[in-house]
Amino acid sequence: MLPVVAHWPAGPGGLRDTIRQEIVARQLDEQITSRYPVGQRLRILDAGMGQGTQALRLARAGHTVTGLEADPDLLKAARESLATEPAGIRERVRMIEGDGRETGVHFLPGSFDVVLCHGVLMYADEPDALLAGLARMLAPGGLLSLVVRNAEALSMRPGLAGDWSGALAAFDSDVYTDDNGVKVRADRLDALTSTLAGIAAPLHAWYGVRVFTDDVPADAGLPAAEELERLLAAEDRAGRTEPYRRIAALLHLCGVRG
């Protein structure tokens, strides 16, 4: 698969964020192309779209995308990025200031073919209720794409950094500190598998994201193009291969609405 990373700036997250966005994009595209005919324009909801990286990428691919974002600064950045796109792409994107828990206020059940919830669940006070609301937005057979922090790998980053006390403490924890210094929750594959089954969007496929690069500095820039391609190839393969995907920093889960 040809990389799309060339279309994205490194952004404030540097290498780590760029790898996450690219690997998730490849995995998501794999699931979409396996479920829908080539060329079909899908109705996509990105709940917690951040700066709009995935939303804009999917709009460029021809889909109609609605982005929901509660942070006004992130929403402003997403709108500024959208403003630089050609008119045909701008017409396919709608951005709304709002919380992922408010989907029932804005949309009718079954309004979307694909719902994204990437990097949001760790901040939710009631994650099960959030997921249930998102699942209701899916048409029958629709795809729910979740990206969460992997609780079973929380010891990896401190361990690789030589922080043995931090590594030992993380073995028994579902809480970690994000890059902004906020304590948030990580999730476990088994628990989310049960949750998805309970909201009628059972797990269809799952991947690891950022197996080898989670311990690089948060502000690390991108390597040369050829080295980046090798890195992406390694991360892509590890994210779908046992046992590597189980120790990835993030999990990408794809449920299908029954």
From TrEMBL:
<dbReference type="InterPro" id="IPR013216">
    <property type="entry name" value="Methyltransf_11"/>
</dbReference>
<keyword id="KW-0808">Transferase</keyword>
<dbReference type="InterPro" id="IPR029063">
    <property type="entry name" value="SAM-dependent_MTases_sf"/>
</dbReference>
<keyword id="KW-0489">Methyltransferase</keyword>
<keyword id="KW-0949">S-adenosyl-L-methionine</keyword>
<dbReference type="GO" id="GO:0008757">
    <property type="term" value="F:S-adenosylmethionine-dependent methyltransferase activity"/>
</dbReference>
<feature type="domain" description="Methyltransferase type 11">
    <location>
        <begin position="45"/>
        <end position="145"/>
    </location>
</feature>
<protein>
    <submittedName>
        <fullName>SAM-dependent methyltransferase</fullName>
    </submittedName>
</protein>
<dbReference type="GO" id="GO:0032259">
    <property type="term" value="P:methylation"/>
</dbReference>
<dbReference type="Pfam" id="PF08241">
    <property type="entry name" value="Methyltransf_11"/>
</dbReference>
